[in-house]
Amino acid sequence: MTLNLPKPLLNLVLPLALPENTDFLGKMLGKALLNDGSGGVIYLQGELGAGKTSLVRALLRSCGVEGRIKSPSYALLETYKVSSLYFYHLDFYRFKNPQEWQEAGFRDLFHLNAVVLIEWPEKAEDLLPQPDLNIHLIYEGDTRIAELDAYTQRGVACINYLNQSSKS
Ligand SMILES: Nc1ncnc2c1ncn2[C@@H]1O[C@H](COP(=O)(O)OP(=O)(O)OP(=O)(O)O)[C@@H](O)[C@H]1O
Ligand SMILES: [Mg+2]
Predict the structure, then answer these.
(1) DSSP secondary structure string for all residues of the chain
(2) What fold does the segment set 19-167 form as a domain?
(3) Domain ranges of the chain
């Protein structure tokens, strides 16, 4: 259950000492996505409890999603829409074979004007569309480290946005 991703175009490693830092990263990524406006595919990797859902919650909030933001661990998919942009939050943890996401009809979610956020993408192995950005949240004692890898120009733009906002 590993993903064979190509060599990234750009990489960024960020220490996340506190849950608030994870939330801030999510918020900034949301702003970067809104700035671009055309959607994208983001993989979220990391062990149970690493902070994938927390990051997505902060991202969705910063994009203007109101009300309760549920983890998709049970429903597998939660859908949101803000103006013309769709957000699909997926969690593949419970999938037992790499074809299940297609059988569930999730291929249709990968369209223009959609931000697709996938927890546990490795459960689909290499059948998934390639990501613009892969975010790996890694336990470091009680804290976390985020490793971000960009695979497309859109992903590169997100990392550049994060770099710029951390300097200003
Ligand atoms: N940088 C951080 N340092 C310490 N704790 C953190 C940090 N970021 C998030 N957390 C905490 O870790 C937990 C993350 O839970 P969350 O549900 O987001 O994990 P998850 O990766 O989605 O897990 P799952 O694989 O079960 O879906 C939360 O309790 C959150 O407060
Ligand atoms: Mg989760």
Answers:
(1) --------SEEEEEEE-SHHHHHHHHHHHHHHHHHH-SEEEEEEE-STTSSHHHHHHHHHHHTT--S----TTTTSEEEEEETTEEEEEEE-TT-SSTTHHHHTTGGGG--TTEEEEEESGGGGGGGSPPPSEEEEEEEETTEEEEEEEE-SHHHHHHHHHHHHHHH-
(2) Rossmann fold (3.40.50)
(3) 19-167
